[in-house]
Amino acid sequence: MTSNDQKTLAEVYADQGTLAIPEAELMQVQNSAAVAAQAVMDVEGVLRDLGRLDATLFYANVADSMLVQIFEKVKKEKAYKKLHYFDEAKNLRQFQTLEEFCEIKLGKSYRRLQELSQHMQALGSDLYESAERIGFRNRDYRALKALPPEDQAVVKQALESESKDEVLDILQDLAARHQSENEAARKERENLTADLEARSRLLEDKAKRLQTTEEELYKLKSLPPDANLELKLAREEEAVKALDAAYMGALAEINRFLLQVDAVLGGEGISAQTAEYAVASVQHYCECVNAALVEHGIPVDFENIVAPEWMRGAAKADLEAGRTGHEA
Fold first, then answer.
1. Domain residue spans in the chain?
2. DSSP conformation class of 321
3. pLDDT tens-place string over residues 8-43
4. Which residue in 282, 271, 272 sits closest to 196, CA to CA?
């Protein structure tokens, strides 16, 4: 090593006639350069790690796609029954169930592979990869699957942009709206069911009263024999039987009609036009019944049937107390 090699950087500058720089300042510059170089090296390491992570995620998605293809093919063809494997004791065994095959050969449970298959069927392989990249979880896939087709299309379009916040916000908003609509439909069905049950109880009560009337006629028939009286009672009995038969038939038909209306209103995928037609058919039926009653001069207080005096009193009390149906 020469004498120049043993000199500090400041001394070298001085020997060369260069403006002397304080050694402390030079050390600070050198340290800053070292820190900057280390920072660059650290960033390079992070970038390499991120690159490896992206590659890992890519191959993981490709692996999932291949697993699903194998799973669906084996499930369809039941090919697992022809395959063998070595157990822990090195004994050659034949697969007995698809679940066993999935665990041993595919490395995932049957349930997990079924979920992956459903996810890919719902989105397609490309959109599935986008969903996985932005961090879709099982609950997100379930929420997407529960949406109507037109709402699913909105989420899929957002998935193409691979904007995680946008996709999850849209999915959550649509899922909340769908749940609210389902809840409203459920309450409507419950109210209709309650109305049908109330009608059934009312009709049952009327049937009991008719039964009581029929029993009274039988009592009259048990009076001392009289030819004319017996003939009249026989006619009365036949008339009551015919009336009962017609009444029960009409009751069965109206219940069948209302149940069909309920099925239409509560059905999945029923259009608004069909639902309106169902409601209009009930209204038209009621109008026909009312017209027939008027034609035959049969007085019926519909207001008292729909809202009896006791119910109107309760409603008035609720209104005076400030209670409404929204608070129930």
1. 1-133
2. T
3. 555 554 555 444 556 666 566 566 655 555 554 554
4. 282
